[in-house]
Design goal:
Helix content: 40-55%
Mean pLDDT: 95
Shape: globular
Radius of gyration: 22 Å
Number of strands: 18
């Protein structure tokens, strides 16, 4: 098949091509050239005329919690006062500890369809559901395979429940990494320095090395972790990881909101990767990550939704606009850089090979975006037009590994009403248990 758009973003961040297209054979791109040249060279190929659209690599969501959708709108007796209260009094007790595998499957299906609809072709998911062990990653993988996404799945192992539960979490990761196949793979994962001991952290890295995968953890999402690390270890979290001897190019640190200049230097020196969630950082009151400084230092950075708002155009807008206001400088985080972080940059952060660019020999993970704007689209403004004025409703088609998953704006094989009904049913179960426990606590207090 040859795909012929009006604009082609083949190498994200670089100027787009006009009247160019690509040839797809099987799961790969085999040619990138001007439209007329492709027509002459491959006259017998099926032709996909995408006039008025931009052909781009699919987005790479470097960090999501697909189960998070179940907490959207959950009843609260009071809002958490800070990030630590958000975790301790709300997220752990009322969401993660109550998840079961049926809830996880429903939320995963909803999230996969939502991501496809907004142009995401690859993602990394971090699942923490200590009472859904074992087997929750395999259950999740069944859903991801059915939707055809390129996914990396992990379980966020933690000793906050018990040391035994922490070992179950590590084992869940190892067993899934070894069983994974096709487009769905695995990663080692643990929570943070304040829920995991030094021996547990070293064990996670040892298991990752033995299985040749990355290790993910949350880092300094708010002020709680750096304050905890300074009090208990006499150093900040990235410094502590370096002290343990585990800071390296196999480390994927998410959030990194409250980090110091020295920590940024260490991340660059050790090759630590980073995933940036601009919108959820705002939602939990964590702060604004110093992403311009991380990029300037040479840290590999990707973007993530954190399971909060999954329309990736909204995530990109956050990455584009928030630093401008924070730094009081409209030049920081230009649109072409943001597009790179959302595609090839994210793929590099996750260690995905030949993903995130449209070039011969690279994976045919791509999207077509309606580019008929109120003002003329041109080489000099295309990135800005796309980042500022498009959303999921403008994604016309999505292909993953050469397979069309979205056509004419519709996710193939997805019944939106059924998926929504299942998600609402499972959310209602979760919410019901929250309200029941709140009522019982109130009765006890009286």
């Amino acid at each position: 098949m040859i795909i012929l758009p009006s604009f082609l973003i083949d190498e994200p961040g670089k100027p787009p091509e006009v009247e160019w297209g690509v040839r797809v054979v099987g799961a790969q791109i085999t040619a990138v050239a001007p439209r007329a040249e492709l027509r002459r060279a491959y006259p017998d190929d099926e032709t996909w005329d995408a006039a008025g659209q931009t052909l781009s690599p699919g987005f790479v969501n470097t960090h999501t919690h697909l189960y998070g959708v179940l907490a959207h709108g959950i009843p609260l007796d009071r809002a958490p006062s800070d990030f630590w209260a958000f975790l301790k009094d709300f997220w752990w007790l009322r969401v993660e500890d109550r998840l079961d595998q049926k809830m996880i499957r429903a939320a995963t299906d909803h999230g996969c369809v939502e991501m496809l609809r907004s142009g995401v072709t690859s993602f990394y998911d971090c699942l923490e559901a200590p009472n859904a062990l074992p087997g929750c990653l395999a259950a999740q993988a069944d859903v991801v395979r059915a939707r055809g996404l390129r996914g990396i799945l992990s379980f966020e192992a933690t000793e906050r429940v018990s040391k035994e539960n922490g070992q179950l979490g590590l084992r869940e990761n190892v067993e899934w990494i070894r069983a994974a196949r096709g487009l769905v793979s695995g990663m080692m994962c643990f929570h943070t320095t304040f829920t995991c001991s030094a021996d547990f952290i070293r064990q996670a890295f040892d298991l990752a090395r033995a299985n040749n995968v990355l290790v993910h953890m949350h880092v300094s999402e708010g002020t709680h972790e750096p304050e905890y690390a300074l009090e208990h270890f006499g150093m900040r979290p990235i410094e502590y990881y370096d002290h343990l001897g585990v800071a390296c190019d196999k480390m994927l640190a998410s959030q990194c909101v409250q980090i110091s200049p020295h920590e940024i230097e260490l991340m660059a020196k050790r090759g630590v990767r980073m995933s940036h969630m601009p919108l959820s950082n705002c939602e939990v009151g964590g702060g604004i990550a110093p992403v311009p400084d991380l990029i300037a230092a040479g840290v590999s950075v990707g973007l993530g939704s954190d399971g909060y708002i999954n329309d990736f155009f909204e995530v990109m807008r956050g990455a584009f606009l928030i630093p401008k206001a924070h730094r009081q400088d409209p030049r920081v985080m230009p649109a072409n850089l943001v597009w790179y972080l959302a595609t090839e940059g994210g793929a590099r952060a996750l260690g995905l090979e030949k993903v995130g660019r449209l070039a011969p020999g690279w994976q045919a993970d791509l999207q077509l975006i309606d580019s008929q704007f109120p003002t003329p689209a041109a080489i000099h403004n295309l990135y800005d037009q796309l980042v500022l004025y498009r959303n999921h409703a403008h994604v016309r088609a999505v292909m993953v590994a050469g397979q069309v998953r979205v056509r004419d704006g519709v996710v193939i094989g997805a019944d939106a009403d059924t998926i929504r009904a299942k998600t609402q049913e499972e959310a209602s179960k979760l919410w019901g248990s929250v309200k029941r426990d709140a009522w019982m606590a109130l009765q006890g207090a009286s």
